[in-house]
Amino acid sequence: MKPRPENRPPSDEKARKAVKPVVCYPVDTLPRPDMALYSAARKRMNRIEEVIVPPREAKTFRVKAGNFFRILSMEGPQVGDLNLWCGTDLFEHFYSGKTRALHGTHLGTGDRMWSSFPHLRPMATITHDTLDWYGFDGFGGGVHDVIGTRCDPYTGRLLSGQDYDHCCHSNLIRALAQETGLSFDRAEPHVHDVLNVFMCTGFTRDTHQYFMKASPVRPGDFLEFFAEIDLLGALSACPGGDCGSEHSSDTAPCFPLKIEIFETDPETLEGWSSPRPSAYSGRHGK
Ligand SMILES: [Zn+2]
Fold this sequence. Notes:
The chain is of the alpha+beta class. Helices cover 16% and strands 28% of the residues. The structure holds zinc ion.
């Protein structure tokens, strides 16, 4: 609970509060994804690989630019924490904060996962979401958020005094270390804020606290992405399961997630090219 205000409101309180908000980033000038092209390409794609992510574990996967990948629910409601890196450079990774500033708190079809500075380019575009019917519920909750960061053992320790080793943060470290051969110490700084796939979250109306509720995802649901650049991904099957009660424990029912990778027919991608890094000069006032 926040303390009660110590200061009396000014006489023009109403007028100050009545000022209309403006959207921070009007996205009218944002290059729009060509959804018709993706739609044609996904009709002729072929599944080439699948990866199963066991409960309370993470797995990595690679997707070539121009191919698609899906994250699928199987067996039961399960939330996944997704990290993405450029396939050839771990220092270019998904930038959750800027993606949130551009697209809002929750992602859906047509939204993009943007990469970190100095690159700031689309890494992946969401091309299909079987949960797109959900929108926002009566609590203000939606799915696939870019608000939360990932469950981690440090916050767990801070709040409960207990150590727990299968948080998404640790799962992602183990998976990245295994993929790259890096030690845990060297892999950890590359793990970043996630896209919370299938997670249902929002802010409470009264205190504006981050909340979660049981995910509406069911087996067969999927979120599909087009890889705009060569990608290395890591997906953790969150120890919170459907995140309806808690995470950072072994008590919630947890289910595997599946990643499917699809190859496209190059003919269907005519007119598309992998986005270049930001064209900003890099002078920073020098
Ligand atoms: Zn988690």
